[in-house]
Write a structure and sequence with these properties.
The chain is an alpha/beta fold. Helix content is 37%, strand content 29%. A 5-stranded mixed β-barrel has the order 5-6-7-9-8. Strands 1, 2, 3 and 4 form a 4-stranded mixed sheet that branches.
């Protein structure tokens, strides 16, 4: 390894942000391993690289003793003093043992170490970028589907959409462009693993943030979201400006804004309701589109009896109880729905 190698390291330091010292440390450790593999593993050796010239030297480290029992690890005091008169018992003597053809091994090892460090640095850059984007939306192209996992090309890396995070009934074909929610970013031995979701309520939240300027500007806020992915979502919103209708802002002119999100979610129904500090009003709104006659709340148990007209009972409960279930999730209250006729009996 010559001065060109040092110049190459300086270039890598500039371009990739990998410090030369880190490469030298890794290289010295790799060369010790390479020496032991090629020239015997019993010696205690040290490899030093001249950081100016790139010259590599191998030293045997031997302990100064009275009587040598292991020539590979020990040197007697008399022999040590021939090297330097200052050596005493228990001192460590470094004796150069650089093999003649060690330069070739060093060059091969250096190439491997540098490539490995570049790969690690690139993985670290990708990890740092995506860890800061957890709970955000990302757009990617479906690369392949394997064992029901969908692998999504995110430009610098790959995201995984596990079966549990896929919308039921949705199909994913190679080349499809999809939006997904970054659920978690993990460090693995093979680099960062980006776990994606299409079912998380956060996906709906982020889609509305992208689509509705009033949310981006902080005028309209999303209070809560309850979602049964692929089927229906309920979202409670409120406005910090009395002149701005939060539901209207989210729906958009002629429903354009909400339609764009429904299309992205392949037809999932979205109910947008007004949040209210008044729990009676919020609970009534949560059962939309059903009309509510009366709300009896039990504050201590966070439960409520909600009364609806007889003809609205099935609408309030919803198909297989979905409307009532989502309303309970949205509000965080236990909800019992009765019709007027049930109360009278």
């Amino acid at each position: 390894m010559k001065a060109e190698f040092i110049e190459a390291l300086e270039e890598i330091e500039k371009e990739k942000g990998i410090k030369k010292d880190i490469i030298f440390e890794a290289l010295e450790a790799a060369l010790i391993s390479g020496y032991k593999k090629n020239f015997g593993s019993s010696q205690n050796v040290e490899v030093l690289i001249n950081k100016e010239s790139g010259e590599v030297k191998v030293y045997a480290k031997k302990t100064v003793v009275e009587t040598v029992e292991d020539e590979l690890l020990e040197i007697n005091l008399e022999a040590a003093k021939e090297i330097d008169t200052r050596y005493e018992i228990n001192d460590i003597v470094n004796i150069e043992i650089t093999p003649r053809n060690f330069g070739r091994i060093a060059a091969q090892t250096a190439k491997q170490v540098v490539m490995q460090k570049i790969k690690e640095a690139e993985r670290e850059i990708v990890f740092d970028e995506f860890i800061n984007r957890e709970n955000e939306i990302v757009t990617g192209l479906v690369q392949r589907v394997s064992k029901n996992n969908v692998y999504v090309d995110l430009d610098k890396t790959e995201g995984i959409l596990a079966p549990s995070e896929q919308i039921q009934g949705e199909t994913y074909n190679q080349g499809d462009r999809i939006k997904a929610y970054i659920l978690e970013v993990k460090k693995t031995t093979k680099g960062p693993q980006i776990l994606l979701s299409r079912t998380h309520p956060g996906l709906v939240k982020r889609l509305f943030e992208l689509e509705v300027p009033e949310i981006q500007e902080g005028i309209v806020d999303i209070y809560s979201i309850a979602r049964e992915a692929g089927s229906r979502t309920k979202m409670a919103v409120y406005s910090k400006d009395s002149n701005v209708d939060p539901v209207g802002a989210c729906v958009g002119f002629k429903g354009a804004r909400v339609k764009a999100i429904v299309d992205e979610l392949k037809g999932e129904k979205i109910d947008i309701i007004n949040w209210s500090k008044d729990i009676d009003v919020f609970l009534s709104n949560s059962l939309s589109p059903a009309k509510v006659i009366r709300v009896d709340v039990n504050e201590s148990e966070k439960s409520a009896l909600i009364v609806v007209p007889d003809y609205q009972l099935s609408l309030a409960i919803g198909k297989e109880g979905q409307n009532a279930r989502l309303a309970a999730k949205l509000t965080g209250w236990k909800i019992d729905i009765k019709s007027e006729g049930q109360l009278d009996n």
